Amino acid sequence: MTTKKQQCPEFPYFGANYPDACCIDGYLYDLDDCDDNGNLYDTGERIPCPFCNKEEFFKEFDCDNDDSVGKIVYESIVSWVKKHYPDYVIED
Ligand SMILES: [Zn+2]
Q1: What is the total count of domains within the chain?
Q2: DSSP code at position 40
Q3: What pTM was computed for the model?
Q4: How far is ligand 1, taken at its centre, from the CA of residue 80, in Å?
Q5: What does the DSSP assignment read for 45-62?
Q6: Looking at residue 38, what is its pLDDT?
Q7: Domain range enclosing 57
Q8: Which residues surround ligand 1, an ion (CB under 5 A)?
């Protein structure tokens, strides 16, 4: 077990082809969803972060099922992050 806390990567999630999702305290926020001062809106939608809150993300999107959309989404996020954040360690 490592105690070193790494910042979760930002990645495309909310439909953009650039990183539009950022993790705050284990949940994803839409970076495009903010006011003029850059304050992010809390939309009330609680999407668990697939990195630091992976267990909940998997539960929410049924990722343990290989045929689920959640699993496909998860794998596409992971491959995007691996490509763009080569130094980021993804825990299994
Ligand atoms: Zn996170």
Answers
A1: 1
A2: B
A3: 0.84
A4: 15
A5: ---B-TTTTHHHHHHHHT
A6: 83
A7: 21-84
A8: 8, 23, 49, 51-52
